[in-house]
Write a structure and sequence with these properties.
Number of domains: 4
Structural class: alpha+beta
Radius of gyration: 63 Å
CATH topology of the largest domain: TIM Barrel
CATH architecture of the largest domain: Alpha-Beta Barrel
Helix content: 40-55%
Largest sheet: 8 strands, mixed, barrel
Strand content: 15-25%
Number of helices: 25
Bound molecules: ligand C2E, calcium ion
């Protein structure tokens, strides 16, 4: 279980770091992806821009070609549809006019470089090129598409349709060619329909013309290419038959690419900045992770440590112990655990204060750390509890030397500054054979053994055995029985008389609780009262006793009633109002009621005790300090609280049997009471001799089997009728 939680812890720790790393890596990835998208988008824009520019260029080139054709058509019209020409060419001896007006015009003209005047059957009437007579006939100079053009023109007679223009392949290259029948613009001039002549102008797309177009349309590197080298991006030139005879090609300017190339460095710069940022982030993140890890390790270490002693704490012990057990499994060793609980530490704390208590803890921690062999673990479990774990060789029988060393160490008094403090220790130990018992169970077993050591009289070491679990189980069963016993009225109250030390007449009764269990028979209050205190059932039981006692004692107003109250009841905030209510209800005089309390409570909670006693005094009840002389008596505290009476513990009476030593002790204790000027009741008087001694020692009230055992309420009327205990009868007889 514990191992699993350790592993889980490790995984979550790993995960936390990985998450940060993962975040950084994903962030870097996001940056790369974003940059890629931006570049792709820019590239798309660039190629779209390129395509648009390409189309624009192609449209411009097509436009330029169309313009050339139109220009040619206009020129043809100007020259051929002309009254003077119509009059001049159709008469004999017109050669001179023709050459002058058409032929010579081909020289240095931007409109045409070659001119033909053709008669029927394409007979050459005139042919000139660049101002000089030209001898190549059109059938040789021009491609066959020329005939098609010529036919449409001839077929049109003298109508407006007798004109054509288009691109043709010539011997010299590609040219725009215009054909028009020579005819009159006005109706005054008549032309001979049967021998019409056609004027043909040819303008080659030479280098100059191409350069001019390039300049006009802002096309870079424009050139004329032949049909074979024409690529799809270029503007094709077709003859009237639809045949591609060449084209205009240019180098694409790709303005998108240009922009893209211009922008790209910025993108890369931005990407680099982001990249550097990410790298810095990763480095910083790494540093932060490192620091966090360091903090975590430190925090973990601190969480495993006890601040006061500097030793491991309970968690630290668990960590180390489980690891030790796991290792023992592999090495086939045993692990031994000692559970130490100091005896008398609380008293040291109460009497000398917490600072001294802390110093005692520190010196115990220091001393123990010298005792723990190498490979062992020492921890402070809290308060005055320590634990020592160590691996031992398999089958090493008998108590290990460490146990003796621990007891020796505590047998010496501790020197704390000017003080010499005695503090013992109770030790429980348990073994995990071959690591078969896990840390939690091992600690539980050593703890049980330690309790056994405490119960058996402290200052000793006891090894765990399985029977202790049976005791524990018994305790659990007893607790359950106690609970059900309250419900089924198994409890009742008996009353023990308290007599006057001189007259032996009954002056009071002490109410004592009894439990008759149908299963276990009579159970001693020494067993069930502590259990009721630790389980919180004492509140109910205590009030039950009080209610019963007040009800019973009502009949004898002159008799006092003593009721035992547990410290646990004092802690209940409803205790005072409850007592007040019960007193009122019973009608018993509060001054005849004495509450008996043991001193422990007053020592541990002086402030609250003072408050409670004040409140109870307010109700008018008396307070008695029970079991006086049994434990640790702090006179200073007692004086402050103003008890009305002390009850001498019966162990002091028993001590009388030890001879003069016991008597000295008794006298010393009673001298203390006398110094405090508080009356004393001696309880546990079993013999006449004891009754005499205690009276002589100054006790004014006596209580014990010698006078009467506790009796049930039903026996009280007889006992109180003659107002004297049986003991008196015996004594006087
Ligand atoms: P305690 O308050 O010291 O009560 C006196 C105990 O001494 C009683 O034991 C009584 O029976 C016993 N005793 C009286 N005379 C003699 C004698 O001559 N010789 C011997 N050996 N014993 C004598 P009990 O009734 O067994 O009670 C034990 C303890 O249980 C009480 O000690 C008291 O601390 C606690 N207790 C009993 N009843 C109550 C109760 O109602 N409330 C609380 N809180 N505690 C109670
Ligand atoms: Ca008592
Ligand atoms: Ca007592």
């Amino acid at each position: 279980m514990r191992k699993l939680s350790n592993i889980l812890q490790k995984i979550t720790r790993l995960k936390r770091q990985n998450v940060v790393l993962l975040l950084l890596v994903s962030f870097a990835l996001v940056v790369v992806v974003v940059v890629a998208i931006v570049l792709t988008a820019l590239q798309t824009i660039a190629s779209t821009t390129n395509a648009l520019d390409e189309r624009r260029s192609r449209q411009a080139m097509s436009g330029a070609l169309a313009m050339m054709r139109n220009q040619m058509a206009t020129t043809m019209h100007d020259y051929a549809v002309w009254d003077d020409a119509a009059r001049a060419v159709y008469v004999p001896d017109s050669q001179e006019w023709i050459v002058e007006n058409f032929g010579l015009a081909s020289d240095a003209s931007d409109l045409f470089d070659t001119a033909y005047l053709l008669g029927p059957g394409n007979t050459v009437v005139m042919a000139y090129q660049r101002g000089a007579r030209f001898t190549v006939p059109p059938s040789e100079f021009l491609s066959s598409a020329f005939d098609v053009m010529m036919k449409t023109v001839r077929d049109a007679g003298t109508s407006d349709e007798a004109e054509a223009s288009g691109f043709l392949q010539t011997k010299e290259g590609v040219a725009v060619v215009g054909i028009s029948t020579i005819r009159a613009a006005s109706t005054d001039v008549t032309v001979p329909i049967d021998r019409l002549q056609q004027l043909v102008f040819i303008r080659h797309l030479d280098r100059h013309k191409v350069a001019e177009i390039a300049k006009t349309y802002l096309i870079r590197d424009l050139r004329l290419v032949d049909a074979a080298n024409l690529h799809p991006g270029a503007a094709p030139i077709k003859d009237p038959a639809g045949k591609v005879i060449g084209g205009l090609a240019w180098i694409a300017q790709a303005p998108g690419d240009v922009s893209y190339r211009q922008v790209r460095p910025y993108i890369f710069a931005a990407m680099s900045i982001v990249g550097i940022f990410v790298v810095l982030l990763v480095i910083a993140g790494g540093a932060v992770i490192g620091r966090l890890r360091g903090d975590e390790i430190a925090a973990r270490r601190a969480a495993l440590k006890d601040r006061l002693s500097g030793l491991r704490n309970r968690t630290g012990l668990f960590d180390g112990l489980q690891a030790m057990i796991d290792q023992a499994k592999d090495r086939r060793d045993d692990v031994m655990l000692f559970y130490l609980d100091m005896d008398g530490f609380k008293e040291v704390n109460d009497v000398y204060g917490h600072a001294t208590g802390d110093r005692l803890i520190k010196s115990v921690a220091a001393g123990l750390s010298h005792l723990v062999p190498e490979g062992g673990i020492l921890a402070r479990l809290g308060g005055d509890e320590f634990a020592i774990a160590l691996p031992i060789k398999r089958g090493d029988g008998g108590p290990p030397p460490l146990e003796a060393h621990i007891l020796d160490f505590f047998s010496e008094p501790f020197v704390i500054g000017d003080l010499i403090v005695v503090a013992g220790v109770s030790v429980g130990n348990a073994i995990s054979p071959l690591g078969s018992i896990d840390a939690e169970e091992l600690l539980r077993r050593a703890d049980i053994a330690m309790y056994k050591a405490k119960a058996e009289g402290r200052g000793r070491a006891i090894a765990y055995d399985a029977e202790m679990d049976a005791v524990l189980a018994e305790r659990k069963a007893l607790e359950a029985a106690l609970r059900s016993g309250i419900h089924s009225n198994e409890f009742y109250v008996v009353y023990q008389p308290v007599v006057d030390a001189v007259s032996h007449s009954i002056v009071g009764l002490e109410a004592l609780l009894r439990w008759r269990s149908p299963v276990m028979g009579m159970v001693s209050p020494d067993i069930f009262i502590p259990l009721a205190e630790t389980t919180g059932l004492i509140d109910k039981l205590g009030l039950f006793v009080m209610e019963e006692a007040l009800r019973v004692v009502r009949t004898w107003p002159q008799i006092g009633i003593s009721i035992n109250v547990s410290p646990a009841q004092f802690r209940n905030p409803f205790f005072i109002p409850k007592v007040s209510h019960l007193l009122e209800e019973s009608g018993v005089r509060p001054s005849s009621v004495t509450l008996e309390v043991t001193e422990g409570y007053f020592i541990h909670n002086p402030e609250q005790a003072r408050h409670m006693i004040g409140a109870l005094n307010g109700l008018g009840v008396r307070m008695a300090l029970d079991d006086f002389g049994a434990g640790f008596s702090s006179i200073g505290y007692l004086r402050q609280f103003g008890f009305d009476r002390l009850k001498l513990d019966r162990s002091m009476i028993r001590a009388l049997e030890d001879g003069p030593r016991g008597r000295d002790m008794l006298q010393a204790t009673l001298a203390l009471a006398a110094a405090l000027d508080i009356p004393v009741t001696a309880e546990g008087i079993e013999t006449e001799e004891e009754a005499v001694i205690l009276r002589l020692c100054g006790c004014d009230h006596l209580q014990g089997y010698y006078f009467s055992r506790p009796v049930e309420a039903s026996a009280l009327p007889a006992l109180l009728a003659d107002k004297a205990a049986p003991g008196i009868v015996t004594l006087s007889a």
